[in-house]
Amino acid sequence: MMELLLAAIMFCATQGGSQVYAGPKSLGPFRIDRDVSMDSLFERLGRPPKLTGDTYCYRSADRRAFLVLTRMVDVYDARVAGDLVLSGFPNCLDRPVQVTAQDLASWRTEGSIGLGADVEDVRKAYGRPSREDKVEETNFRWVIQGDFKDNHYSNEKRPEIGDTVLVYGGAPHDLRIAEFGIRQRRVVWISISKNE
């Protein structure tokens, strides 16, 4: 009995430093806790004219919200959605943007966080983030699809991506991650991913 107790204590001690993913599991119909097919999202958003790529761009008819949807990497299953970025600003510079009938600005996480949410509401819904990063130089420029060309980012300033980012990640082997771009204490973009 004592050996079993000692083994349990040792196991807990080695696991104590590992971080558990505490961020959102969904954003609109997209989920990272189970597979969501690209076809089901295309049915909802509108089928792109070409299905050959890995990344698809949408905007709501009222131009209040923009979405970048990416397939899982081929190693896993390209029929499954791997990540998405929802923003209150245009974020596709290098490919066609399809207008969707979906009200993208109304998409929320299961914790009721969407575009325009207060930064404190994010913390109330998901707790303390894994880290809080300042948006400096070119970090987080990846949010804008197509901003990286010819091995560098454009010289254009990108104040729309905000000034800080709340990052919710898990243990090193856990691919799930959620990021909330914050500008003037409000959520201006959300990225949620289970992709590499």
Description:
This protein is of the alpha+beta class and 196 residues long. The protein has one domain (20-193). The chain contains three helices and twelve strands. The protein has helices spanning 2-15, 38-45, 119-126; strands at 26-27, 30-31, 55-60, 66-71, 81-87, 97-100, 131-134, 148-149, 152-153, 164-169, 177-183, 186-193. The chain has an eight-stranded mixed sheet with strand order 6-3-4-5-12-11-10-7, with helices on one face. The longest helix has 14 residues, at 2-15. It is globular. The protein starts with a helix and ends with a strand.
Characteristics:
alpha+beta; 196 residues; globular; two-stranded antiparallel sheet; single chain; 8-stranded mixed β-sheet
Produce a short descriptive summary.
The chain is of the alpha+beta class. The protein is 15% helix and 29% strand.
Q: What's the number of structural domains?
A: 1
Low-pLDDT windows of residues: 1-17
Shape: globular
Number of helices: 3
SSE run: HEEHEEEEHEEEEEE
Itemize the secondary structure elements and their pairings:
Blueprint (H helix, E strand, L loop, with lengths): L1 H14 L10 E2 L2 E2 L6 H8 L9 E6 L5 E6 L9 E7 L9 E4 L18 H8 L4 E4 L13 E2 L2 E2 L10 E6 L7 E7 L2 E8 L3
Parallel strand pairs: 3-6
Antiparallel strand pairs: 1-2, 3-4, 4-5, 5-12, 7-10, 8-9, 10-11, 11-12
